[in-house]
């Protein structure tokens, strides 16, 4: 998977040469501590992912195709915050949610086995689903969060997600906002999750 992360990273760096590849690695004991705190086990791909990301800061807003990546410690803090919603019967009423494909993602608001990888600064995420519905597969990458009622399988794995980002990287650009900060976005400045859903629909 690191090969694909580097390919994506190098594509961003062509537009933003200041970008530096993560150098601060984390070890297995750090990951084990997170798993213990979450009372779950990462799959091998998640473990590898956080070893690649380490505790790096990329120095470019919305580096992950328009979303901010979480390092392991940031992910754990956000994951803990969301546990307040797990047992809210009204919020988790399945009638408010949908899954695409049908039966692939559990129709609820929060799930402790949805592991956020990246966010949009508004409590919406893409992440790994370790608790799929009957037609899904553990390790699939999905959207979830405050505004993501229509859950969708975005990729079968993190590796496949990276391959999608690489496939459409010619539509992603580094831009500068009015405050002088640089950020990464798609050519139409569409919310990343909606942009990615649109790309998947084009290919179906």
Structure, described:
This protein has helices at 2-15, 28-38, 44-53, 72-82, 158-167, 192-202; strands at residues 68-69, 98-100, 114-119, 124-129, 140-145, 150-155, 172-176, 182-186. The radius of gyration is 17 Å and the shape is globular. A hairpin with a 4-residue loop joins strand 5 (140-145) and strand 6 (150-155). It has a single domain (2-202), classed as 3-Layer(aba) Sandwich (SMI1/KNR4-like). Helix content is 33%, strand content 19%. The strands form 2 sheets. A 6-stranded mixed sheet has the order 1-3-4-5-6-2, with helices on both faces. The protein has a two-stranded antiparallel ribbon with strand order 7-8. With 204 residues, it is an alpha+beta fold. The protein is built from 6 helices and 8 strands.
Task: Summarize the entry for a quick read.
With 204 residues, this protein is an alpha+beta fold. It is built from 6 helices and 8 strands. The protein has a single domain, classed as SMI1/KNR4-like, CATH 3.40.1580.10.
Characteristic key phrases:
two-stranded antiparallel ribbon; six-stranded mixed sheet; SMI1/KNR4-like; alpha+beta; 204 residues
């Amino acid at each position: 998977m690191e090969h694909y992360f580097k390919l994506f990273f190098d594509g961003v760096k062509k537009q933003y040469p200041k970008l530096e590849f993560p150098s601060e690695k984390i070890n297995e004991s750090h990951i084990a501590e997170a798993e213990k705190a979450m009372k779950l086990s990462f799959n091998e791909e998640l473990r590898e992912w956080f070893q690649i990301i380490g505790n790096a800061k990329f120095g470019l807003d919305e580096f992950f195709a328009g979303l901010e990546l979480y390092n392991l410690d940031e992910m754990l803090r956000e994951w803990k915050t969301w546990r307040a919603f797990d047992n809210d019967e009204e919020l988790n009423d399945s009638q408010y949610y949908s899954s695409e494909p049908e039966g692939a993602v559990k129709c609820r608001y929060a799930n402790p086995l949805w592991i956020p990888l990246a966010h949009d600064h508004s409590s919406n995420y893409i992440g790994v689903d370790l608790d799929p519905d009957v037609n899904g597969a553990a390790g699939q990458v999905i959207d979830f969060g405050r505004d993501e009622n229509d859950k969708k399988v975005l990729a079968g794995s993190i590796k496949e997600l990276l391959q999608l980002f690489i496939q459409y990287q010619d539509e992603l650009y580094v831009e500068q906002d009015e405050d002088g900060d640089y950020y990464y976005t798609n050519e139409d400045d569409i919310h990343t999750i909606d942009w990615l859903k649109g790309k998947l629909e084009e290919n179906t």
